[in-house]
Amino acid sequence: MLFAGVSYLAIIIAAVASFVFGAVWYVLLGARWQAALGKSEFELQSTASPAPFIATGIGLIIMAWMLAGVLGHLGMVDVWDGIGSAFFLWVGFVATTMTVNHRFQGLPWLFTLIDGGYWLGALLIQGAIIGAFGV
Predict the structure, then answer these.
(1) Torsion sign across C-alpha atoms 111, 116, 121, 123
(2) Are 127 and 83 in contact (CB under 8 A)?
(3) CA 94, CA 92: separation in Å to the nearest integer?
(4) If you write DSSP's letter for every residue of 106-119 in order, what string do you get?
(5) How buried is residue 86: exposed, middle or buried, by Cβ count under 10 Å (0-12/13-18/19+)?
(6) Cβ–Cβ under 8 Å, residues 126 and 59
(7) Rounded to an integer, what distance in angstroms lies between the CA atom of residue 63 and that of residue 44?
(8) pLDDT, tens digit, for every residue of 84-125?
């Protein structure tokens, strides 16, 4: 019964919308992201695989599902509550975890800002959509 009240349509739409946002985000910032990663176009293309895109899609569905569950448990069911909750979850869990990992991996701050900006945008989009559907 944990997720009995969530809208699975909202979850799918939120996941797809955040995936599309990622495509636009990384098309716009891809060159800077690549430079911050320190890899050449050849290095990235030589390891090209659909696996990261599949993992991203699955991850975004799980993220939207969990966000819907949190919003449902909090009783928050409008767009602004969805956006606000998504922001606080990003600050408390995504940004902190990513920042710690990137510091230990020796990645530059620009890489963290680009990736963190994507995850913030993805969560805000998901929160708005799930909130609009009323969880």
Answers:
(1) positive
(2) yes
(3) 6
(4) T--HHHHHHHHHHH
(5) buried
(6) no
(7) 26
(8) 999 999 999 999 999 999 999 999 999 999 999 999 999 999
H/E segment holding residue 73: helix 51-74
Residue 40 neighbours by CB under 8 Å, 6+ apart: 34
Contact in structure between 128 and 79 (CB atoms under 8 Å): yes
**Residue 115 carries which side chain, given as an amino acid letter?**
D
Cα 1 to Cα 8, 20, 78, 112, distances in angstroms: 14, 31, 22, 37
The identity of residue 131, as a single letter, is G
Two tokens at 79? 């767009």
Residue with tokens 């993805």: 122
Instruction: Name 30's Cβ contacts closer than 8 Å, sequence gap at least 6.
Output: none
Taking CA 89 as the corner, what is the angle to CA 72 and CA 70, rounded to the nearest 5 degrees?
15
What tens digit of pLDDT does each residue of 34-87 get? 999 887 777 777 677 899 999 999 999 999 999 999 999 888 689 999 999 999
